[in-house]
Amino acid sequence: MLTRTDEVESLMSRFPGVPREAVIKEDLLRGGVAFDDSALSDNESGEVKPKSYFIFSFDHRTLPELGAAALRRPPEEIVLTGGPYELRRTVVSVRVNPASPYRVAADDHGMLGLYLDGKRISDVGLPPMPEYYRHKLSNGKSVMEVAPTIQWGYLIYLTVFRVCQYFGAKQECQYCDINHNWRQHKAAGRPYTGVKPVEEILEALEIIDRYDTAKASTAYTLTGGAITSHVGGRDEADFYGMYAKAIEERFPGRWTGKVVAQALPKEDVQRFHDYGVRIYHPNYEVWDRRLFELYCPGKEEYVGRDEWHRRILDSAEIFGPRNVIPNFVAGVEMAEPFGFTTVDEAIDSTVEGLHYFMSRGITPRFTTWCPEPTTPLGKANPQGAPLEYHIRLLEAYRATMDEYGLTSPPGYGPAGPGNAVFSVSSFMDSLTV
Ligand code: SF4
């Protein structure tokens, strides 16, 4: 029987143009990793930066099923180096799966390693607790809860609205657990603010600015659930925009402002820009028409796929095509029961979408799908998409970028194996420097 090691090594040799680091990273992102207790973080009182649950759970089990990993959080990210594949420095977001063939554990000398099928395949480094996480806001809230940083400290992730107004089976995107994640943290008694007050965000940023003396934090992302009506009397553009305005007034130009929001009409997008946002992520999620309609029923009902795409193109007139970076969720194309049944078809469809946007100077980016167990697609597909899909996507993505003379999108830090910090997909690891 083929082991996961066989599969990984076979893909490494079939696709030599894809860095080996990316093969391991994609496999960890799609299937998760188990943690020995020795590799957990001890929450905010330890020496390791804990997983903040910055928007979705990105785990393969619910909190009550995670045991020690729920009580003593895993690290936010791990960094892999060395081993038999001679991995260059590779930052990977942590998605916990106790049943994964990958395991992070300490050896007899206390050195952490990544094990696949029981064999050590790399050294593992953990992110140190940043100084700014050791300081609380005046109301006692932690910086990790209000303004966590990811991507090895590069990006401040501001999920200012922790739920989505697309609610329930008929509206929620079928791969998204934002609403469940909010419920599970509440149920566990963890602090998990539904709507983050602007003053809290500013105070947390003040702390980050003061203690991040190396200026590792470079950008912030404002995001959260879709707003189909109002939050606090504001529509989506004004709600997310008000944070950007306040941040830019208090810390002009300190970080690059990004917003992940719906594809909004041009006047609303203009307001984002006026408020000081510089990069816009109107995520199109999945390219295929039938799958978009099935997977994103709320978006289809309120906006519709064609209009969504039109608005993405329109927004390039305001932000400039380089600064419009729509995300798609790589892997859901192959989710049963509706997805493509062959990797060829799934790649062809995804690449059609890449051509549509890249031929217009817009560079989409992707997050590797994590099949969270409380989502309809995660439930039906606990193994996620085939690793081959993810590897071929990296190859096709780079080829399409080359075809249109595009380079890595702005706001993602350095590119290339050994350099990238973007942690929830290896697209940045797979591009040339
Ligand atoms: S719009 Fe879809 S993906 Fe975004 S938060 Fe809502 S349900 Fe999740």
Task: Tell me what the structure shows.
- The protein has helices spanning 4-14, 20-31, 68-71, 143-146, 178-187, 198-211, 236-250, 266-275, 289-295, 297-302, 305-319, 343-358, 376-380, 387-403; strands at 34-35, 77-82, 87-93, 102-106, 112-116, 119-125, 149-150, 155-161, 219-224, 256-261, 279-282, 327-330, 365-368.
- Strands 1-4-5-6-2-3 form a six-stranded mixed beta sheet, covered by helices on one side. The chain has a five-stranded mixed beta sheet with strand order 7-8-9-10-11. Strands 12-13 form a two-stranded parallel sheet.
- The longest helix has 17 residues, at 387-403.
- α7 packs parallel to α8 (266-275) and α8 runs parallel beside α11 (305-319).
- It starts with a helix and ends in a 30-residue tail after the last helix.
- A hairpin with a 2-residue loop joins β5 and β6.
- The chain has two domains: 32-125, no CATH class; 137-403, TIM Barrel, CATH 3.20.20.
- The relative contact order is 0.13.
- With 433 residues, it is α/β, with parallel strands linked by helices.
- The structure holds iron/sulfur cluster.
- The site of iron/sulfur cluster has 8 residues, from loops.
- Keywords: Iron, Iron-sulfur, Metal-binding, S-adenosyl-L-methionine.
- It comes from Streptomyces crystallinus.
- This is Radical SAM protein.
Summarize the structure.
The protein is an alpha/beta fold and 433 residues long. 34% of the residues lie in helices and 15% in strands. It has two domains: 32-125, no CATH class; 137-403, TIM Barrel, CATH 3.20.20.
